[in-house]
Structures are given as structure tokens and as C-alpha cells.
Amino acid sequence: MTGTLSPELERIVAAAAAAAPAYAATAPADRARAIVAVADALEGARSALVEIGARETGLTEARLNGEVTRTAVQLRLFADTLVAGAHLDVRIDPADPDFALGVRPDLRRLLIPLGPVINFSASNFPFAFSVLGGDSAAALAAGCPLIVKAHSGHPELSDATARVAIDALAAAGMPEGVFYLIHGREAGVAVLQDPRIKAGSFTGSIGVGRLLADIAAARPAPIPFFGELGSVNPVFVTAAAVAEHGEAIAAGYVASVSGSAGQLCTKPGFVFVPEGGALEAGIAAAAAGTPEHRLLDPRISRSYEERRSTILGTPGVRAVVEGGIRFDEQGHGWATPTIVTVSLADFRAGHAGLIHEAFGPLSILVEVPEGTDLAALVPEFFEGNLSGTLHLGAAEAAGTAEHVDELRALVAALSQQVGRVLFDGWSTGVAVTPAQQHGGPWPATSNDSSTSVGTAAITRFLRPVAYQNAPAAFLPEALRDDNPLGVPQTISPAGESQGWGGRWR
Amino acid sequence: MTGTLSPELERIVAAAAAAAPAYAATAPADRARAIVAVADALEGARSALVEIGARETGLTEARLNGEVTRTAVQLRLFADTLVAGAHLDVRIDPADPDFALGVRPDLRRLLIPLGPVINFSASNFPFAFSVLGGDSAAALAAGCPLIVKAHSGHPELSDATARVAIDALAAAGMPEGVFYLIHGREAGVAVLQDPRIKAGSFTGSIGVGRLLADIAAARPAPIPFFGELGSVNPVFVTAAAVAEHGEAIAAGYVASVSGSAGQLCTKPGFVFVPEGGALEAGIAAAAAGTPEHRLLDPRISRSYEERRSTILGTPGVRAVVEGGIRFDEQGHGWATPTIVTVSLADFRAGHAGLIHEAFGPLSILVEVPEGTDLAALVPEFFEGNLSGTLHLGAAEAAGTAEHVDELRALVAALSQQVGRVLFDGWSTGVAVTPAQQHGGPWPATSNDSSTSVGTAAITRFLRPVAYQNAPAAFLPEALRDDNPLGVPQTISPAGESQGWGGRWR
């Protein structure tokens, strides 16, 4: 991998780099209008796009229609976010002659766009984590030109979606060069290595994510690389939860494991339950009649079949829901959910073979003896994860149960290891909101300083710059005293620096 | 480098890891009190510490006393910052049944401490960027146990400072294991590679910084590494500025280049001035009689002597202030400032040999023909830098000069390349304030998402976690509705999601 660009890629990267200053300088309201126009155009092209997507991915039209809506709403939410301007983190320190360390100059700081970004899109969300997905929305809202590397699982849909974006951005008056689509891993790597590219984002496997993160880090000038990688999303169900709402838990679990054929990074992979199998009948009943679902592509299908066999063949593992996978003549696998159970002792013994993500509709119940230190299981078995979940009984949730301190310790252990801690719900279904966190320590992500879902993702493509004693004529609008953009400004008034820290004596 | 720890290092890293949950859980006011107690203890030990520092580094007692004050104020400022709680970026999305994408769960997000941090301290600021410097203050304030790798240039001072910190933290009731000092690069690398360490920080050379950044990125579980590396800090002086206040510019320039013998990462390395040498007499007059100053150590002294000879020997380079360096019997170099001038054409021709940082009291004037496109010089000659500076005339600053657009283009070019853009001042002297930005694109830093001076640095040692539908009994205090800590909470009320983006049509 040399980083040398083909003439076509050179043209694209040069155009993105040339567009960067003009795009960064667009008025926030104009950029917001352009992004909303893209969202509207996406919904306008909905039926044609969903038809291509269903053919290329095997996902249902209902699911894909929902994803189009989600993707459009996501774009509009980022449009609002960029105009509100809180993400600029504007800080103003007026000059202070009485500053504790001598005269303080006038200092004003904000976040500015990094420059051209490459986004490697995902296979399993052909809209929401693909050409116009969350990473793309965040980069465009931040003010960065974007080059999207299409996922090979839906090339035609990627082209059609990119066409929607390019046309809508041009019609909205955005600079040429703000949006490109490229195909092929080699092309993606070459662009990632180009010095004009200032950040990368990715959703996919740990293996590919690590490869790309290493490339980004090894460049002569390293750049941030935000990879959202693998996750197995441990769940803990207490005895009280089983007793009080076991049936609902069983139904929710099966729905979460089988939705989209389990091909979601937030699928609950391991559920720690009390010994005794009290949930098993409910799980079997809920799973009965789940229709078979095509997996995304033949490679994923074969990989799933292999993982499933390994897990079923591990000593101590017993099927609660057998499920299965059959292959059609195109090599596509069609799967029904498989749910197995194993004792904690056998899980501990077979853990090396069981712990890795099974991408598809399979999940593992781990039966835990009464009195087990649940908090200790988290670091024993898990690295970083996108989510961790607890199902509690009513007294436990109210904090009045006798063992509430043990449960608090479990919550603390999970928050050390995951990006999102859920109570009495399922981790699939990630709301796009300001407070969402879709991330977590390695290997859930390659960079855990941000999120890949929700508006906080916009800061991934920004960096801080301060202006010292700048005349008003040279200040960015967001930093001016008259604040023409109406963004939040955190002002540290002169004279307040004298008492620093004194009250903590 | 295997990452295997000696028994002593194993004890230290294990203790830091064991202390992490307890330290993260300390009440903010208690942590603030402990940090202020450290600041007070540092000032209490001032005279003994300054005596050791002066002997080990050759820096003057006046400078070191100022640095102790700065370091103590910095600690107290971080104490205030951590209690104020804005750095937690608390976001609360109450549950919303009418959410645009279906029922929105209750989501609450904040930033939590990363865990144990290793900080590699600097040679040139034995207090402010060393054992209790800005990186250390930020990590301790964030709630992360800290292991400091001492700089080999002031080992005795490092030990004495660490003793002050350890005693004060213990007396303030902080958990054991929150603070350690280690010596030796091998030990530092081994700790950086340990999986229990969650972030690294560094101030020093590009070469060492790159080595450490690569180690952090290559770990089985990569971690963020915040290196503040090299910078040459370009300055542009317009003809109007020379005409209106040339004498003050000359005096300020010489003071900025010669202070601390030029051993500052913010020293102005290149000053672009109008052709004609109008500043030269003023510079020579200001430099006359500058006393010689010992450089930090023999290695830096030899390296400076070599850089100085290379620069003086480059075709077209002429000394404005000759200066010099002599060596004492211990091998320490004693330098007086050297300021040279070169035409833009000769600079362009000899640029490969001239452009790298000369760590010491040397700076280069570049004489620019009238009509030169100044903005174009920035990307032609410079990579990322900590700062860039403009000196303007009054009409230019007011924005009424005819060529104001050219100056705006220069400001835009600088802000693409630097962390701080200054007007009519000098980049040495970095105020410790909320709006300060001490960073910049590679190679100014290895990670340009944050700052190494000012309170914004605290976010480097934090990561986000969200809680979904958490019962109040399990929420961190900062996320609770009754907000017992009184931290800023950004609330996205239910019902407001319906209109997203709609007004941008």
C-alpha cells in the first residue's frame, strides 16, 4: 500500500481539498439548508432506493424504509445542531489586567472543521451507517468535505444515494468537491493515506477497523480515525426480574436477537441469567415461528455457519432454540435464530471459543449460580463494548433491595467497559439524540473520545483554534462580541481569576 | 520493548489501577480540595525546590519562581474547573413518546475518567510541564490516577516535587496509588504499553513524541496519546506595522527569542518582514548586552551549536545579531541570541536546511518583496504549528486598509495550520485560561483534538458514557434530576424533536 493515487482519485482528493476552505466558510444556516435538502431528496428517492437496497442486502423493505426515515431525520438533526452552535465550544476570556499570572490577553477559542474526511461505510445499515449515514451527516455538518468509500455489499445503492447527495448539495449552492463516492478497499486505503485527508471514520469488523486505524496512525502526519468495531453487549438478568417479568424479558430478548437476522453491532450476545432455566420456555415460545431471514452476503453467511457450529459444539453448550441456516443457489444463507445455554463453569472453560461476536441471529445464555459476584464477571470476560444491560426487579430498581450495593457495583463495572448502560431494555435500537453514546473502549471503537450515533458525533471532525488579541475585523463571527450567529459563548469575565481555587482550602 | 514490568513497576501500575475506581468516585469538592492542597504544598516548598531546579536546569531563580506560581495557579484553576463540572458535558434527553423515530428512551450522558494515565514530563519547564504541570493537573482533576515519568534533566527536582504531591494527596484523604513518579525511558515505555494504562501525555521533541505515539497506537488495545511536540511559530510583520511601531516590535521580538535562552516551544522561529532591513537596527540595539544564558543540558547545547552553524552557513543567510555559544568544563553551553536574515528567494532555496526548529536563542528573519502573496507562504513552508502571529498597522487592524482581504486570507491560512493565531504580540507566554489553545496539527501535536495548556485540557482524560432508562438509584449524581452537584445540564425536552430541521427548508 503506497498511497499513490490513480488519476481519478487524485482528481477527487484535490477537489475535496480545494473545496475545504469554501465549505468551512459557508454560513451555518446555508449549510443546514443544504443538509436538509439532502434529507428531503433522500426521502424523495425512497422507493427507488429501497428497491435496490432490498435486492442487494436481503434486508426487508419495512426495515429499509425505517432506515431511510432514520437517516433523513438524522441529517435534519445535524442541520439543527450545526446552527445551534453549541458544538463550537466557544470560549471567550476578555483581557484581564489583574489576572493571577500577570496581564491576561483577550483569548477566544472555537472548534473549526478538520478538512476532508474519508468515511468507510458499513454493510449492515445500507442507509443509516452508509453513504449518507451518521458519520457522513456529522462530517458534512461539521463543515468537512467528504469522500465516502462504498461498502461492497451494496454498490448500486451507494451510487444511487451518492447521486442524490451530490445533486442536492449542488442545487443548494454548496461548493463543488464537497461530496464524492469511491469504490474498492485499495482506493479507500490510498485516500486514507493521502496527506490532504484529515480524518477517517469506519463502521465494520475489528479486523478491518484495526487495519485502517493502524494506517491512519502510521501516516507521516497521523490523523484521527474513528472506527466503530465489534461488540457482544453483555446482559445481566436478576432473579427478581425473571420472577416479575420473565415472559416480557424472553420476548424482548428473542426480538432483539432475531431482528435484522441479528446482524447488528448492538445484538445482545451474552445474557447472564440465574440457574434453573426459568426463561427457557418463554424464549422457545417467542422464537417459534420466527421466519428465516437472508443474511447480508455469502461471506457473512459462511462465517455465521462456522461460528454457530463452533458454539454448538462447545462442551456444555445446549440449544434452547436450535434454529439453523440453509444456503440458496446464490450462496446466500437464510437463518432462523439459535439461542443456546451454558453453565458459568462451562462458559469459563470454553470461553476462548465462545466469546467472539457471532454476527447473525445467535445468542448465549450463561447460567449463573446464586451468590456469584456479577461485577467481577464483567472484567473477567469482556473487553470494551458498545452496551451493557441490566434487567432488575421493582425493589432492585427502586434501590430498596438488600443487595443494591452489589447491583451498583455491577453498574460501575459495566460503565468502566461500555459506552451505554441500559436498564430493563434491549441494546438494539439506538436513538439518534443529543445524549446518545454509541461507542466504548477498544475494541468497541478505535477511538473512544466520541460517539458514532447522536449529535455529539459532530465534534469528531473539529479541532480547536484560539485567537489572541484579534481585532474584531479578523475574528470568526462565532467569537465576536456582537455574536451575530447567536451561538452559546462561555465567557470568563475579567477580574474573576483572582480567587481561583481559594475556596477549596 | 516487550512491555514486561519490573516488580517495582508492576507494584506501581497495579496500585494505580486499583486506585482508579475509588479516585474516580471521590466527590468533586474533595478532589478539588486535595488538588489545592497540592498547590499550597508546592508553594510551601518553593525555596527548596527552586534551588534544586536552578542547579539542575540552569534556568534563573526568577524564572523558576514564576514557574512555581504558574504551576500552583494552574492546579487551583483545574480544581475550580472540576467542581464547576462543565467539562462533564452532561446531556439529558428525557423519555419522549412522540419522538420523530418512535418512542425515545430516557438517555443521560456524561464524561467519566479514562483510568490510569502516564505523563512524560518536559525538560524546559521543570515545574509547569513537569511532575505537577498542566498534563498532571488535568489528569488529577479529571479523576485519573497518574504515573509521571521524570525528565532526565531534573531528576532530583522531580523526586522532591513528587514527594510534595504524594504527601499532600495522602493528607487530603485521596486513595493510595493516585500518584507515582518513575525514572527512565525504558520504564516509561513499559508502563505506556501496559493494558491497565488508559492514556498518555508528553511534552518534548518530535522524534521522541512520534516514538511514543506509535507505541500507544500499536498496543493490542490502542490508547489516546497527547504529545505536544515541535513548533517554529511563524510571524508576519506588515510594512505598516514596521512604520508605526517598528521599535516596539524589534524589542518584543528580541525578548521573546532570548527569554529562557529561547528554549520554549513557542519561540518565534521565523519572522516574515518587508524587504529593506528596517527592523535590523532596532533588533541589534535590543539584543546588545543580553547576558549569556546556560542551556538546559550538554546535549541540547551541542545540538544548538550544530543547528546554529548550519543556519549561519546557509547561502544568503546574514547575521543581524551574531551572538554565540561557549562551553564550560561541564559541557554546558552558554548562549547569547543569534538573529539572522535571509531573502525569501534564498530561504526558498535553502529551506530544507533552515526550516527545522533550532531549540535555543536563534531566530530567522525572512525578507519578503512587496506584493508577495503572504497567505501562500504558510502552506509552502509550514506544517502544523502551535502558533502563528501577525503584526499589523492601525488601519489594517481596523479592517479599513485597502489590502484587508489579503490579510484575512493570511489569517485563514494560519488558522488552518496552527492552534493559536496572535495579533500584535509574541507567542511566548501562554496564559492558563479557559479559552487558551496550546496545540495544532501534526507535528505541533500528535493529537490535535485538545490543548495542553488551559482548562480545556481536562477533556483529554475523559470518555463518554450514556445511561438509558436508569432508575434514579443507579444514576451518577451529575445526571440526576435533582442535580446535587449543581453542574450544567443540557436538557433536550420531550416534544421538541418533531420539528427537527424543518425550518431549514
From TrEMBL, chains A, B:
Top-level division of the source organism's lineage: Bacteria
Keyword entries, A-Z: Oxidoreductase
Residue ranges of coiled coil: none
A Pfam cross-reference name: Aldedh
Record-linked InterPro entries: Ald_DH/histidinol_DH (IPR016161), Ald_DH_N (IPR016162), Aldehyde_DH_dom (IPR015590), Aldehyde_DH_Superfamily (IPR050740), ALDH_KGSADH (IPR044151)
Annotated Aldehyde dehydrogenase domain residues: 8-309
The protein's name in its UniProt record: Aldehyde dehydrogenase (NADP(+))
Organism: Leucobacter allii
